[in-house]
């Protein structure tokens, strides 16, 4: 977990606000590793001269990050208890 000052160290308040807004991140007391990665990625794009529109287009949607984390923690065999392994299942 990261405290805001660890991520925002030498940035002006307007740079912090812009980065959070473009990164789709809320202001909060602690940031996760994923939040920090997203903040840094956003800062890199801004520092490379990206416009707001370019930065938002190049960043992956926040929803995708959340979905990949939840999908990565479960497998189809555990969802079904392994009962249907190797058999076809017909859904009508």
Low-confidence segments: 63-85
Beginning-to-end CA distance, first to last residue: 46 Å
Structural class: mainly alpha
Report the order of strands and helices. HHHHHH
> Helix coverage percent of residues?
55-70%
What can be said about the biggest beta sheet? none
Shape: globular
Number of strands: 0
Q: Over all CA atoms, what is the radius of gyration?
A: 19 Å
How many distinct helices? 6
Query: If you average the pLDDT, what whole number results?
Result: 77
Q: Estimate what percentage of residues fall within beta strands.
A: under 5%
Describe the model.
Residues 66-92 are annotated as: Disordered. Residues 72-81 have a biased composition (Low complexity). Residues 82-92 have a biased composition (Basic residues). This protein has helices at residues 4-8, 13-23, 33-47, 52-58, 62-72, 76-79. By secondary structure, it is an all-alpha fold. It has a domain at 4-60. The chain is globular, with a radius of gyration of 19 Å.
Question: What distinguishing features does this structure have?
Answer:
58% helix, mainly alpha, 6 helices, 92 residues, globular
Short description:
This protein has 92 residues and is an all-alpha fold. The chain contains six helices and no strands.
Describe the secondary-structure layout.
Blueprint: H1 4-8, H2 13-23, H3 33-47, H4 52-58, H5 62-72, H6 76-79
Helix pairs in contact: 2-3
Biased composition (Low complexity): 72-81
Region (Disordered): 66-92
Biased composition (Basic residues): 82-92
């Amino acid at each position: 977990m990261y405290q805001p000052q660890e991520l925002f160290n030498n940035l002006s308040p307007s740079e912090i606000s812009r980065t959070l807004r473009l990164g789709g991140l809320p202001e909060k007391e602690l940031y996760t590793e994923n939040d920090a990665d997203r903040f840094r990625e956003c800062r890199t794009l801004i520092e490379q001269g990206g416009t707001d529109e370019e930065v938002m287009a190049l960043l992956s949607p926040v929803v995708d990050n959340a979905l990949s984390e939840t999908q990565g923690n479960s497998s189809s065999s555990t969802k079904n208890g392994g009962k249907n392994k190797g058999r076809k299942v017909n859904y009508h």
